[in-house]
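In the laboratory, one determines a bound structure by crystallizing the protein with its ligand and collecting diffraction data. In a computational setting the workflow is compressed into a single prediction: the sequence and the ligand go in, and a structural description comes out. We illustrate the idea with magnesium ion.
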Amino acid sequence: MRLDLSLAARSVLRQRRRSLFGLFAVAFGVAALMIAAGFFEFNYDSMREGVIRSRLGHIQAVKRGYLESGASDPFKYIIPETSEDRLLLQSAPYVTVVAPRLSFNGLISKGESTIAFLGEGVDPVPEAKASSFVPIVEGRNLAGPDVSEVILGRGLAENLGAKVGDKVVLLATSARGAVNAVEVTVSGMFISSSKAYDDFALRLPLGTAQALLRTEGVHSWLMVLEHTDRTEYVLKKTEPKIKSSEIDLVPWYEAPMADFYNKTVELFSSQVGILRVLVAIIIVLSISNTLMNNVRERTGEIGTCMALGDTRRTVLRRFIVEGAVVGFFGGIAGIVLGLVLGGVVSYYGIPMPPPPGMTIGYTARIFITPRIVFDAMLLAVVTAFLAGIFPAWKASRMVITDAIRHGR
Amino acid sequence: MTIVVLEHITKEYRLGEHMVRALDDVTLSIESGVFLAIAGPSGSGKSTLLNIIGCIDTASSGRISVAGHDVSGQTPDQLASLRARTIGFVFQTFNLLPVLTAAENVEYPLLQMQELDKEDRKERVQEMLELVQLGKFAKHRPNQLSGGQRQRVAIARALVTRPELVLADEPTANLDHKTGEGILALMRDINRKLKTTFIFSTHDKKVIDSADRLVGIEDGTIRLLGVRKEGQWAITNLSRKGPAQPAKKSQSEEESNA
Ligand SMILES: Nc1ncnc2c1ncn2[C@@H]1O[C@H](COP(=O)(O)OP(=O)(O)O)[C@@H](O)[C@H]1O
Ligand SMILES: [Mg+2]
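The predicted complex, in structure-token form:
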């Protein structure tokens, strides 16, 4: 095998120009694939982080069934604001913060206008860490856990005609079925990655929300981790330790809201799949072309080697290895090229218009993960290997005497 | 002891519409240890005959046995293994692998011999390079060597597996006369020293005299057989029809380099 590799390397070096052509084709394909996959990866990543760090957290602790049917009977799914279990989650590894949330529907009015809202009672200090993707675009965040303040989604504020500093009244049905009201001051406005959310959402201090709804509890504890990759690990570590039999830990990817993300990834992945096929075709064509020329040019050598006792299998293996060597080094060159190009593009950024359902445009970057690099390399080597089979087979089937006489 | 036996060998090639008969009913047996020249004009079938003896080509009909192996009906892999172990080749155009050094070229046929480790191979390669007086050129690439030196490397490569038989198809045709003589003298030396059977072809009458056996071939048939004893050729003329012609004696020149 070492000999095969060394022979292949020398043969590749011998036809520098031709090998370089094959190598460039592979490198170009690999780099293109990496850039495209890296672009999609960035988008998945932003979308995922956007929904996690505004709405879902990495893991939500809720009463069993809340995510599916909580909307129709919110008071049935109240859990305590704090408990042994919450402390346990807070002390788990990689946990940045555990933030309680109480969700409810109601009506908001200012002067003549009244519209429906989707409210969340939040503890402002942990929530600031949990909602890092919910920037305050006007005014300021909630001042404390019990103040009479509210922050509005920008769309909601616009629909209502409310400005920072305005007083608004919130109406909601309490746990006992009565309608309660509270007057609060608009302290700020926020946006998230979802326009649909911003058009209806508001957030107020947890204590104020609990008073409005006449409850002591919350609906969920949102766990936010240092890194999204840790979700499964933390879930596995904490799940068995939860004492309350009613509480479920739901990772972000299983929440109904993550459906949109999962579908988008699926769609884009199939597009990357198409690109992968195109790149595979480029690699197959260029490598088989390179090898066909090598085989033709070295016909005499092939005949000689077979006369010296090389079997057909040996000849076959030599050329396949040769193709794989071009694929391997082309792949390496492509990875370097892809990383450099990706770095340059990311440095300047690609300005993107607001995607459907979002309020603001964003700057796209290329986010190349180890997985992308691995996949691109694998594609290069495997396709190069496959591309080598036919020329190598041709070489191994040569008639020895004709091959030796060739080019005399 | 005979090393090669050919019985009624015929070889036909298809050239477009018609068939070319390159060998026509050739029957020949070759003793072990001889230094045999196959002589004949261009196109007479020398290469075809050598290729068939060397098991890199198959006869259209007839029986061949090489070094005790009946070659007919063997698979390509069996033939490859037979070539690897019992036959060495020297080519008119040297046919060294250009990407390998002289030593690596010589080592090449040993790589398929699993029983030899790296040390054994190195030792044998060095021994062979010394034998062809190229010990100092081990690291040279073929394109850094002269024609004569390349052919010496090829001879070392042919001998490194310690074959019973070395086949050389016009080994001197691409060399000037003096260098060619040197090559033949070297082969002749090795033939005597190692008792390796050499069969070489030539269309040059001058080189024939270094041989001790002669097969004259014309139009695919054997026309004469010669045996040299004490510097004298004993020639038997054969014709396609009729019995063998009376033997004719010819005076051999003094061996030039032996
Ligand atoms: N592969 C082939 N296809 C067709 N004809 C061939 C082939 N090889 C040899 N011949 C023919 O067979 C005859 C003998 O050729 P060859 O053995 O090469 O002669 P020599 O080596 O004595 O010059 C020639 O007429 C040649 O044209
Ligand atoms: Mg010839």
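The interface with chain A takes residues 47, 51, 54, 56-57, 76-77, 80-81, 83-85, 89, 91, 93, 95, 97-100, 108-109, 111-112, 157, 161 of chain B (CB under 8 Å). Keep in mind that any predicted model is a hypothesis to be tested, not a measurement.
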